[in-house]
Amino acid sequence: MDRIYAQSQLCIIAAAGASSNYGLPGVGHRARTPQTRMSIGNINLVQQYFPSSMVLQSTWRSRGWTFQEGCLARRQLIFTDEEVIFLCREMCKQESLFLDNTSDWEGERDGYEEQLLREVIPSLTKQDMHRADYTDISIQNLLAEYTRRQLSFDTDAINAFQGIFQALSVRHCWGMPFEHLPDEDETTIALDWKSLQGGERRESFPSWSWAGSRGESLFRKPSADSSICKIELSLAYGTWLTVKDYIESHTLHHDNKLGKLLRVTGCTSRPHFVDGRRLRKDLSRVPPLLEHEDGTQTFAILKRSDNAGYWIYKIYMDLKPVRSEQLTHELSNSMTMLVCRERGWNEGSHIILSPAGGHFRRIGLAVRFHELTFTEKDLRWKLGGHKFLRRTDDEFKSSGMKRTIILE
Length: 408
Prior knowledge:
This protein is an alpha+beta fold. About 25% of the residues lie in helices and about 30% in strands. Among the domains are: about 1-125, no CATH class; about 265-405, no CATH class. It has 13 helices and 21 strands. Strands 12, 13, 14, 15, 16, 17, 18, 19, 20 and 21 form a ten-stranded antiparallel β-sheet that branches. The model is unreliable at about 130-135 and about 385-395 (pLDDT under 50).
């Protein structure tokens, strides 16, 4: 599909109606909404349309399979209930509006609306598709936009984005792009994506991939100064390869033959969970950012690895929001957090794991939110004493014991 759209002379976009049965307004029996007109004396006024708003609210833009039409097609003829819009990589023209650029205002308005429409319909240029370093055009941003969209069948979660991967020559493992860290000469998978709302589970995909749950997700590019855990991929015939070794042996393997399991080696920790109401009630120095948080928001607290204080982590659950008491009650004796990044003030993130037989499943992400300067004695009194610090120091630290686990 990426080659079909990229090589097409013109792509017709039906940005009107709730389904393909609606038809194209102005073609056949489907009438268009008349443009409102008014005369005041010798002055004639006509209604002005804003194509970015019309396309933004369309069913077409909410669907997953239509994402590649906007990204890859060079020229698009967009049908709305009000008008037809022509969009290419050089210009944007509305049927209802004639601008000859004779005035500065007309030129500014034309360019501004074109910019807004291009934000609504992201487009990949020929330079993007032939760029050696695909990370420059931020595949993470494209994935974030795509995960907002809806699919009729969960099994299409990666298929509907596969054309973008192919057009940009991006290799991936179950939808997670391989990322090269030039400063470290290493290739990895950035596991610390976060679900913004939490959706239902897609059982066809591994839990560590964004495709494993419905709903909008955000992604962060790995940085060379981050502490990255070692990741090994499972091949179909039962062997393991590091991501770097797998990429270098690309002539022998194919991405669609990769198994759903990851073998990950890194530092793990056992957090203490607390909700926003508890923090505001029990801490005399409430972080300013916390004052604006919903009281039901769940946080994790971990001791800094340098023993210089504590970190508060904000919790983003992959499937659905849960209260702190649920996490503590259901998972306190078995749940663990795996460090993804632990460098710099705003670079701390851990993935939250729950045991599943002999393996683990990802259930959320903990993102560093605020630093606590309380002493251990203060926290022992303020947050429940021995219950808060009942685990060993090694388990309780943000970078605790190093271990190897299997993610499914």
